[in-house]
């Protein structure tokens, strides 16, 4: 009898504790904006930084070089800084635009009903291209940026000259291991809101095989725009709304020659997806680079950039 009494009391205590923790967690998850960074980008003082105003957003982008256009689209929680090693090399032969899409960098969204899904991100690419006067361009996308570029190429094949996808989801296949965390109500909000510079740094290191390349500048340049409340909210919405069944179903609609590049040590998405993706595209080749992680162009620039240069030439 005493054991049952104590068991009930412990059960009640645990239930009360859990209820209190949940009550405390909810305002943190849904009301608190999270820690902000006051770091001012040094990279933007070294490049030509511009804005393109549209009804959808005030797009931030950088531009360099001259020649046929190439538009670079970074992955989730990253921005144009991610392409800092790629831009100078491509700019030898191309006009290179590195654009921040909604949820990235220093772009400011103007439409409150923006859906943060594949159709919406495709619309954002079209809006940017229209704003800077590009009817047709080569697209290079990394990770989520590649998925958005792929979907844009499916819907607007006449506007894509060439397409390069770096460690980009596009198959209705294996997802990043952390996906379930961000898709879970409350937990996703907590994870996004509580991400501070240290947690952000750990996440970035997880996308590199050569973690010694992850510098303090890289973390500061990435975390500062990510820490903006609008970017955090967009980041979480993308985790929940990106549906790769759409890209998977439309792979046969891509008419542009496509290069699929993948890091052999990608811990987010298995490199086996590279060839599977290329096999489903009408005109594609796949290359897996050994010893490289998910953020391929930053982790292994010496191997990645020449492949991009040759493909885009």
UniProtKB/TrEMBL annotation:
What positions does the domain AB hydrolase-1 occupy? 69-299
The answer on whether this UniProt entry bears the keyword Lyase reads no
**EC number(s) on record?**
3.8.1.5
The record's listing under InterPro entries reads: AB_hydrolase_1, AB_hydrolase_fold, Epox_hydrolase-like
Q: Report the enzyme's class at the first EC level.
A: hydrolase
Per the record, the domain of life is Bacteria
What are the recorded GO MF terms, alphabetically?
Answer: haloalkane dehalogenase activity
Q: Which SUPFAM superfamilies match?
A: alpha/beta-Hydrolases (SSF53474)
Entry keywords, A to Z:
Hydrolase
What name is this protein filed under? Haloalkane dehalogenase
Species of origin reads Nocardia otitidiscaviarum
